[in-house]
Amino acid sequence: MLIKRPGTVRPSEITPKDVYVQRREFMKAAGATALTAAAALHARGARAEGRFAAVRKSAYSTDEKAATLKEITTYNNYYEFGTDKESPAEYAKRLKTSPWTLAVEGDVRRPKTYGVEDLLRFPLEERIYRLRCVEGWSLVIPWVGFELKHIIEQVQPTRKAKFVEFTTAYQPDTMPGVRLRILDWPYVEGLRLDEAMHPLTILAVGLYGDVLPNQNGAPVRLVVPWKYGFKSGKSIVRIRLTDSQPNNGHFVRWQYRCIATLIPTRPSARKTINWGKAGESGGLANCAIRKPDTRAFARLVLIHSSVVRFA
After folding, report:
1. What is the pLDDT of residues 45-54, one digit of tens each?
2. Domain spanning 50-303: which superfamily?
3. What's the Cα-to-Cα distance from 146 to each of 123, 236, 238, rounded to whole Å?
4. Do the beta carbons of residue 215 and residue 228 sit within 8 Å?
């Protein structure tokens, strides 16, 4: 590098003092802005603005504080990738999510197969729900998705259709947990047709404004906020409308009835572990919900969850 002596520097090459000071102030301000943004991002525990950052916020959301992204993505039940809470975050990276199709068939007039991009054409919105597990823990999660009823309406159920069956992915080459005989593989769950058509029932394609992480059920999963988490199947590959109740044999053997509906007035003997929220209790419903009033039901399940305690 050529270093000029003081006597060889021309006046035209010297930066004026006022310009030099302005540059220093600009760099200091830019650095402060970057640090402020980074601090805000760290405080939220969320990623930078993602693919779904601009989706509208739904009124069908709880006003509870959401768990951090780290909590949501590192404390998971996804037995296909291990039975402890940490294994899914480690092993679900192997899950093959592309290409992906979701077949909707059974007692319908217009069966259809959707690609992921087809699903993203449905009206997406953010729904903040509390996900509750039968183990006694819960997390408030800001999902991105759309109402399942939009797909069901497209395929036009026949009069025979009474239930909706959901089949999840089965990939023995990427899922170490399927070698264990802890569940029937592939995992199958179900809802009554009226429950599937309820506006609170969604298919989620993202969370925290970005695409679903693999360990949370990428690329598409079911979310039913008034039922225990085992009803909300992850990584769904098939939806089948049928006239008979789907067999979720594993949880039936554990004496959890297929309906799996939360009852806010029934105490539970299970210890409750909540992220930043203690003292909740609840139980399983042995009876069905009889076509509840949508607004009243949403208010019960979501808005008053700080008063009406669930497990």
Report:
1. 444 468 999 9
2. Oxidoreductase, molybdopterin-binding domain (3.90.420.10)
3. 6, 15, 17
4. no
